[in-house]
Write a structure and sequence with these properties.
Elements lengths: L2 H14 L7 H17 L4 H15 L2 H4 L4 H17 L13 E6 L6 H14 L4 E6 L6 H12 L3 E2 L8 H15 L3 E6 L7 H14 L3 E7 L4 H14 L3 E5 L8 H10 L3 E5 L7 E3 L2 H8 L5 H11 L2 H12 L5 H13 L3 H6 L4 H4 L7 H16 L3 H5 L6 H11 L3 H23 L13
Length: about 450
């Protein structure tokens, strides 16, 4: 997301950087380009107007035009105002007497049920004991979907089955179950519709009155653009939202909704859904999103993702083995799986400062890369434990057997072993000097 907007803004600042002295006319030209870029990214017109007005007020002053590096000063101002537009970081309000009720609302197709599970998983990691309540009785598969997710994550689900189900009553009984089970957080998966209607809103108002949630969170699909802003406004006017969760942030969309929603509705963004996996939900940090939009990367999120995905004790053990030259294909397989847990290659690259600019014009086929990673994993899994620990035993017949077992070609086996040997040789040379901490993934493709 934001790729097109990010590229256009970087081009604007690149041209600006060529000016030794910044004139007022240059600032006006930059603001015109920024305005067009934001509008093309589907940012709300009123939001764009207010944003560029605030930037103009600061960028036309003496401190900018007479600065040693005026272009950097303008970038700094744009970053600050972008953070201001995105709003303060949202946090869940878990105060008062437990169990704390979180009510999730939204239209069908926004990813609401999956988000309920993602949120429950995140809360459990923080030390809470969540209970999910399946109250979407209108979509046939919704209750079953939440039950399956509950079993996968080992998180309890309260659900009812029958012909005449009453969602408000289900929610009330779900809260009662939380009390009896000792759960301190209840997450209500309320019904979605294809569009906002009177019946839907009345039902949500009843659920809110009867369960008294501490949070009413709208799950909105960021890929729907300006429609997402209208949906958020409609829900807020009817049921009083306390926060937004934007899903499909990793999708191929213009991204304007993410910038507009906080400013238009006044409701804070609290979480971002960054993928399909159950751990793909992150707290919203306006500074980090602004940095991503401007192509500055997001090192803090990258570090947090690595800390969450990697087993630090296992990584330290592998580093010791690597230093001693004992790193084998079993160790590599464990590292490969941990890297894949962090997310898509494109998502990770976007978090590295300057990487977007460095890779400008370079096409990264994420689907092909993921396919290749799976093939490497299949090759290693087709080896015997002895072959993984000691690849030198791999003769022609063994390689043919591995290729047949993994559905690959012998040439791919040869390439993997060749790269593995190059890596060991490189590490051996590094060990003669000083080797930095941490492991990196060798380039097999």
């Amino acid at each position: 997301m934001f790729e097109s907007l990010s590229e256009k803004l970087q081009n604007v600042f690149e041209q600006l950087g060529k000016h030794g002295v910044l004139r007022e006319e240059d600032v006006k030209q930059v603001l015109r380009e920024i305005r067009l870029a934001l509008l093309e990214a589907d940012v709300n017109y009123k939001v764009v107007k207010e944003f560029t007005s605030r930037v103009r007020e600061q960028a036309v002053g003496k401190e900018v035009t007479q600065a040693l590096n005026p272009a950097q000063q303008v970038v700094k101002i744009v970053h600050q105002e972008l953070v201001e537009t995105l709003g303060a970081p949202g946090r869940l309000s878990l105060t008062g007497t437990a169990p704390y009720v979180l009510m999730l609302v939204g239209l069908q197709g926004s990813g609401k049920t999956t988000t309920v599970a993602k949120l429950a998983l995140q809360l459990r990691k923080q030390g809470h004991f969540p209970l999910m309540v399946a109250a979407d009785t209108y979509r046939p598969a919704a209750i079953k979907q939440l039950e399956v997710l509950g079993r996968q994550l080992d998180i309890p689900v309260y659900s009812e089955h029958g012909r005449e189900l009453d969602p408000p009553a289900i929610c009330v009984r779900g809260v009662e179950q939380a009390n009896s089970r000792g759960a301190d957080v209840v997450i209500l998966d309320t019904a979605g519709r294809l569009q906002i209607d009177t019946q839907m809103m009345q039902e949500l108002e009843t659920i809110r009155e009867r369960t008294q949630p501490v949070e009413v969170l709208l799950v909105a699909d960021a890929m729907t653009g300006q429609e997402a802003v209208s949906i958020a406004t409609g829900f807020h006017e009817q049921v009083g939202l306390t926060g937004l969760i934007l899903t499909k942030i990793d999708g191929d969309a213009r991204g304007g909704a993410a910038i507009s929603m906080r400013s238009v509705t006044g409701v804070p963004i609290k979480f971002l859904g960054t993928g399909e996996k159950t751990n793909a939900l992150e707290l919203f940090h306006p500074e980090r999103m602004a940095s991503r939009i401007l192509g500055m990367g997001d090192v803090l999120s990258l570090i947090e993702l690595a800390e969450e995905s990697f087993d630090l004790e296992e990584t330290a053990r592998m580093e010791k083995r690597l230093r001693k030259g004992k790193f084998d294909l079993e160790d590599f397989l464990k590292q490969l799986r941990q890297v894949r847990k962090m997310g898509s290659i494109g998502e990770l690259l976007n978090m590295v400062p300057g990487m977007k600019r460095a890779l400008r014009g370079v096409s990264i086929d994420e689907a092909q890369t993921e396919k290749q990673l799976k093939r490497v994993e299949a090759i290693i899994l087709s080896m015997t434990p002895e072959e993984r620990r000691n690849p030198s035993v791999l003769n022609g017949s063994r390689r043919l057997r591995i290729a047949q077992g993994s559905g690959t070609e012998v040439q791919e086996i040869n390439q993997l072993i060749s790269q593995y040997r190059q890596m060991k040789k490189m590490v051996k040379n590094l060990n003669k000097g000083k080797m930095g901490r941490g492991l990196s993934l060798p380039k097999f493709f």
